[in-house]
Amino acid sequence: MHFDIQFSPAYALAIARLEPGDKVMAESGAMVTQDAHIRMETSASAGKGAKGFLKGLGRSLFLGESFFRNTFHADNSAGEVTFAPSLPGDIMVYDMAGTDLIIQQQSYLASGTGVEIETKWGGFKSFFGEGKMFWIKAFGTGPLALNAFGAIKEIEVDGSFIIDTGHIVAFEPSLSFTIKKVGSWFSTFFSSEGLVCRFEGKGKLYIQSRNPAEFGSLLGGKLPPREK
């Protein structure tokens, strides 16, 4: 199977083109359309065994994401399934080739079933990164579709690089990171810049041009109060 991306960059749609016997896995709720003969199965996003089940449960409880993922099967004939993220923006396809990729938890959209997805504990250094206690780790082989809020930009880091935590989509594990203040404590609290992520090393970093948390705060303040 392979992905075709249409309507980039503002309202991208990922089209999974399946050959007979192919299947594609996606985050719960991401499906837009599917051919009528495509068979869907829902399973816990957990991996194998009790350990995998607990990982998936932890992902659901702490990240507020669905505990389930859907797998779409083209059993006897070719077909298509389309996927879209909740927020407007672009979709990129990263070809996994036996290497790992660390993904911001809301940026995973869909993948070939040769790609394994598991929760990766970010440690206390990411606890203060706007609640990003967990990253998703992808490994294996096959296509991986990632979504962003806004446009996606690829950056070749060679040395040090600083980015606002809300703009991270994914990065290669050859990069290490620390969460730090943007400046002094005064600047951190009064500049509205919050905390930043400092990457070190050599590898690829993918960022999104808009910050979902900032957009949510702006929009939420303009909504009328909920009636009781």
Could you explain the architecture of this structure?
The chain is mainly beta. It has one domain: 4-Layer Sandwich (Double-stranded beta-helix). It has helices at 49-63, 185-190, 212-220, and strands at residues 2-6, 13-18, 23-27, 31-34, 39-44, 68-73, 79-83, 91-97, 101-104, 108-112, 115-121, 134-147, 152-164, 168-171, 175-181, 195-208. The radius of gyration is 18 Å and the shape is globular.
Produce the secondary structure layout.
Blueprint: E1 2-6, E2 13-18, E3 23-27, E4 31-34, E5 39-44, H1 49-63, E6 68-73, E7 79-83, E8 91-97, E9 101-104, E10 108-112, E11 115-121, E12 134-147, E13 152-164, E14 168-171, E15 175-181, H2 185-190, E16 195-208, H3 212-220
Overall mean pLDDT stands at 82
User: Low-confidence parts lasting 5 or more residues at pLDDT below 50?
Assistant: 46-50, 59-64, 127-133
Q: Main beta sheet, described?
A: 12 strands, antiparallel
Domain count: the total is 1
| Number of strand elements | 16
How many H/I helical runs? 3
| Beta-strand fraction estimate | over 45%
**Mind telling me the C-alpha Rg?**
18 Å
Write out the CATH superfamily name. Answer: Mitochondrial biogenesis AIM24
Which word captures the global form?
globular
Helix and strand composition category = mainly beta
CATH topology: Double-stranded beta-helix
Order of helices and strands: EEEEEHEEEEEEEEEEHEH
Question: In the CATH classification, which architecture applies?
Answer: 4-Layer Sandwich
Distance between the termini: 49 Å
